[in-house]
């Protein structure tokens, strides 16, 4: 027993236990929970080593003292300490205090478990709320992305529409300049044609004047008071029996009658020709184009025929004209009295020939434009008679894609009333110099210049 006590003294375990207790006390508030637990476990291990050696000494001492040696001491001090499960440091600690400590420990554990459970519930609730908030945030982000994408698409469409509108405006301006240049060239060509015709007329006038002077010389030499020779001189291959009704018509009355006849052709003859054409052509636009071009060509052919007819009449009447009225008045009066001398069939043939080579219109191969020859004949007659007025009536110059004029034309029922350009003409406007006498009819559509160019 002495050796065991000596070894216990020499091992300095108790001193080491005391040093560790002091160090732990100093660093208790600095250490973490795990560090404190580790130190406490080390101290318990040291304490258990010391207790093991002390129990060895207790066993040896009890054997050395005999069977009943130290029994009272063990009963009075060791057994109560064992009853408290080593929790008391003094033998005077009662079982009630140890029970109360145990109950407090259980209550603390219960409260810790309750707090832990409530914290877990709160944590779970917060995690659920956080997940819901994240889902809502993702939904809001998705809506924001969709809104941004829609905004970008709207901006792109708006930019595309703006560019298309600008391109259309530029194209219209370019087409307008091209049409203006073509119109200027056509005007120049027309002016050149007029100048050429004026030169030809001047040449014919000079020739006729020379012939007139020759004829006057012959007449002065062969003039006789004989009524027979006088009557033979006044005879002319163009002399016809004058119609009293035609002779009595004034310029204003003929003006009114011709305008009325022009309106009748639009209201009746045009519709008859349109009905006839619809038997062979299903496209209403093409039918209306054919009738309009036939009307324009009829006026052109009638005016050319009138100029040629007038030259022949002037050439025939100039040698024998001696009346108080001028030669021009006499020629016009003769043409008015003898309108039936107009070779209208020749003009009809010219109109049909011009329509056969017109690139804007087409006709089925099994029929011919002669199908509407009666309509062309009536327009040629009216156009020829209009040239005999003091101020001749003529149709307005028209071209596809021109700017629509409210003073000259009316919209058709199928027109786009906000469109500024003429897609194609249905009926020409009748003009007296620059004044519109009878309005025409036209179809207006957007992009008319582009569509008419592609025809």
TrEMBL record:
Residues 254-444 form the Mitochondria-eating protein C-terminal domain. Residues 222-237 have a biased composition (Low complexity). GO terms for biological process: mitochondrial protein catabolic process; mitophagy by internal vacuole formation. Pfam families: MIEAP (PF16026). Keywords: Coiled coil, Cytoplasm, Lipid-binding, Membrane, Mitochondrion, Mitochondrion outer membrane. Residues 219-238 are annotated as: Disordered. One of its GO terms (cellular component) is mitochondrial matrix. One of its GO terms (molecular function) is lipid binding. The keyword Repeat does not apply. It is found in: Cytoplasm; Mitochondrion matrix; Mitochondrion outer membrane. Residues 116-211 form a coiled coil. Its main location: cytoplasm. It comes from the Eukaryota. Belongs to the MIEAP family. PANTHER family: MITOCHONDRIA-EATING PROTEIN (PTHR21771:SF0), MITOCHONDRIA-EATING PROTEIN-RELATED (PTHR21771). This is Mitochondria-eating protein. The lineage of its organism: Eukaryota, Metazoa, Chordata, Craniata, Vertebrata.
């Amino acid at each position: 027993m002495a050796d065991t006590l000596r070894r216990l003294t020499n091992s300095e375990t108790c001193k080491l236990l005391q040093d560790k207790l002091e160090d732990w006390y100093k660093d208790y508030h600095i250490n973490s929970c795990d560090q404190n637990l580790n130190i406490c476990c080390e101290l318990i291990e040291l304490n258990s080593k010391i207790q093991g050696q002390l129990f060895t000494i207790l066993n040896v001492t009890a054997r050395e003292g005999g069977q009943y040696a130290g029994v009272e001491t063990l009963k009075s001090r060791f057994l109560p300490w064992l009853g408290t499960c080593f929790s008391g440091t003094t033998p005077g600690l009662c079982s009630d205090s140890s029970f109360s400590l145990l109950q407090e420990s259980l209550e603390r554990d219960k409260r810790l478990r309750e707090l832990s459970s409530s914290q877990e519930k709160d944590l779970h609730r917060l995690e659920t709320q956080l997940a819901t908030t994240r889902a809502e945030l993702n939904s809001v982000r998705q809506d924001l992305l969709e809104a941004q994408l829609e905004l970008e698409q709207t901006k792109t469409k708006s930019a595309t529409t703006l560019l298309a509108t600008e391109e259309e405006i530029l194209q219209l301006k370019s087409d307008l300049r091209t049409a203006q240049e073509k119109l200027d060239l056509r005007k120049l060509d027309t002016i050149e044609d007029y100048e050429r015709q004026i030169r030809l007329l001047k040449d014919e006038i000079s020739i006729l004047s020379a012939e007139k002077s020759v004829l006057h010389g012959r007449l002065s030499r062969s003039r006789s008071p004989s009524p027979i020779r006088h009557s033979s001189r006044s005879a002319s291959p163009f002399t016809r029996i004058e119609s009293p009704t035609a002779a009595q018509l004034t310029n204003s009355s003929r003006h009114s009658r011709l305008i009325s006849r022009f309106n009748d052709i639009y209201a009746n003859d045009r519709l008859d020709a349109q009905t006839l054409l619809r038997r062979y052509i299903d496209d209403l636009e093409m039918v209306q184009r054919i009738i309009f071009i036939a009307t324009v060509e009829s006026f052109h052919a009638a005016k050319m025929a009138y100029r040629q007819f007038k030259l022949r009449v002037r050439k025939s009447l100039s040698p024998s004209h001696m009346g108080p009225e001028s030669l021009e008045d006499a020629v016009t009066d003769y043409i008015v009295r003898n309108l039936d001398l107009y070779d209208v069939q020749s003009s009809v043939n010219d109109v049909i020939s011009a329509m056969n080579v017109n690139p804007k219109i087409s006709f089925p191969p099994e029929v011919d434009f002669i199908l509407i020859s009666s309509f062309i004949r009536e327009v040629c007659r009216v156009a020829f008679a209009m040239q005999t007025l003091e101020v001749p009536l003529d149709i307005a110059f028209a071209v596809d894609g021109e700017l629509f004029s409210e003073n000259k034309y009316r919209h058709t029922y199928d027109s786009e009333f906000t469109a500024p350009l003429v897609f194609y003409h249905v009926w020409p406007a009748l003009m007296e110099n620059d004044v519109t006498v009878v309005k025409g009819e036209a179809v207006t559509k957007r992009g008319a210049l582009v569509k008419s160019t592609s025809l």
